[in-house]
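#struct-help
A.M.: can someone run this one for me? Single chain, 323 residues.
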Amino acid sequence: MSKIATQTINGKAFEYALLIEFLERLRVLTSVSFVENEPYKTALKCFTSFDEKEQSHYKLVASFAVNFLLDIEPRLSNGISDEDILQLEIVADKAGQTGDVRDVLAIRSLQKWEIGVSAKNNHRAVKHSRLSNDIDFGQKWLGFPCSAEYFQEVKPVFDNLAKLRTASKATQKWDTLGDYHTSVYVPVLDAFKKELLRLDNENPGIVAENLIKYLIGNQDFYKVIKGKNKVEIQAYNLHGTLNLPFESVKPKAKIQRLKLPNRLIEVVYQDNSKTTILVTLSEGWQISFRIHNASSRIEPSLKFDINLVSAPHSLFSNQLFIG
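D.P.: on it. Structure tokens below:
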């Protein structure tokens, strides 16, 4: 377990708690099963690494979330017949690379229906993407390749980092570079900013939408954020597949469809920052991109910590406080 980062262990333990609470709550209401795959075994191992008190807390928080989801997703507890089995599954992490951020799935094959939950433990980051001299973020994120000019601007910075790493046999640390925020981060962020605006300008109406789809995920989902004494549930209903009725059974709350942006409004540095860029889009979306070195030792790539600063008013969000 020691090789898995604490944040990951917490997240996986919460995934397990959600699956188990779904299972316990639903088995008395409908036919339900779960897939005992590798991600499930990993999540179980993470969950059992905590003591009983901590495990109980995870399950308590998960039970609040599950009870609420049952109210707004009638198909969870309602099947057409005994053959209409609800299958629960924890998803492998690599699904996130293809734009599917869901961790726990509930699937009814007979109804051709599924919903997914993204489980977060005390953090709200949407993605951790990298930049380097050979990562084409335009192609990877947006479906449109970056220009030769962009690579000409970032290549000298990353090439220099690669040389330093090789010369020091991967031992030299970032702090030996002095003010590397100015010498490394700023030129990379300037090039990124310019390229994002160019891509939007050349592909009007598409880049802004594709950026949100890449960051938020290409499937509708609920994000369940576990706090210390509360749980927050957000509904990312981009395609209108959440909150559906089952026959005459209607959800107990209405979830609006989220509007995707169709243009970039501005891309600017956060006040007094050399590490963070704010991207403002239409329909009330704003995203922060904070660049950082993922390791204390120099390496020829940089990582983004990407967070949703604001979302449209139509983003459904509900906080449940746990006594």
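A.M.: thanks! Residues 6-124+217-258+315-321 form one domain.
D.P.: also worth noting: The mean pLDDT is 93.
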